[in-house]
């Protein structure tokens, strides 16, 4: 009887031990989400203690007609599309090139990962200095080699977004390379041997053998980078502060500006939930597209 009771208590013990972790998880995720959802239906401002006046869907209606929110939405889509797309193309090409055993390849792989190890704030400061109009290295070499006049890279609409995308590509392409390279090195060699025996070209082997086997890895990499790009804030804020005008204003920086510059907490919460819904819809469509049987 005592042994049976001990077994029952031991079996229940693991659930009791899980309670503190579950409580912390709820406190750190569910409670803030619930609070922000409730706040999004109010006119609450952080500078006005206790002013939780319910205003229905006024915040969401306001966001729908806010030109700054619309600009941030399209800027974010542009930033995510080009940065993730370029990172994937470059990452795949570099992963294929690095997936071979030659002398010094380990050093090259390690060196390639350095940008990913730098904090986003440091990356922003570094590239802001390099693109500085008066004493930046980019203008210096452009003037020395091509004799061109100094360009205000971060202060003109036509250049600001491409520069922001370039910096993001520089920092996060190594992550794509590392992930895809790990996937390539885990592939079985038998299909490649069969393809070579059948006389398949290098492109056919890549198209019909490599890509199908890497499908799940590609999905995970693109999903992670897409979600992470939607949340980008540090580098963009340091480089351009959302400018010039609103040409590089992303959803994340717009939410920050509403919440901590104008202190409209309720409105910021509503915009945050719109942002969350947009990301969820886009990533869901993205997953469905990549899981189609005819994608590769």
UniProtKB/TrEMBL annotation:
Task: Domain (ABC transmembrane type-1): give its ranges.
Answer: 73-286
Q: Tell me the superkingdom of the source.
A: Bacteria
Classify the main location.
Answer: membrane
Pfam families registered for this protein in UniProt: BPD_transp_1
Family matches, as PANTHER family: BLR7065 PROTEIN (PTHR43005), SPERMIDINE_PUTRESCINE TRANSPORT SYSTEM PERMEASE PROTEIN (PTHR43005:SF1)
Organism whose genome encodes this protein: Paenibacillus darwinianus
Family per similarity comment? Belongs to the binding-protein-dependent transport system permease family.
Q: What is this protein called?
A: ABC transporter permease
Alphabetized CDD domains for the sequence = TM_PBP2 (cd06261)
Q: Record's SUPFAM superfamilies?
A: MetI-like
Q: Where in the cell is it found?
A: Cell membrane
The UniProt record lists the keyword rRNA-binding: no
Q: What UniProt keywords are attached to this protein's entry?
A: Cell membrane, Membrane, Transmembrane, Transmembrane helix, Transport
InterPro entries assigned:
MetI-like, MetI-like_sf
Spans traversing the lipid bilayer: 12-35, 72-98, 110-130, 158-184, 205-227, 270-291
Q: Name one GO biological process term.
A: transmembrane transport
Any one annotated GO CC term:
plasma membrane
Look up and give the membrane topology term.
Answer: Multi-pass membrane protein
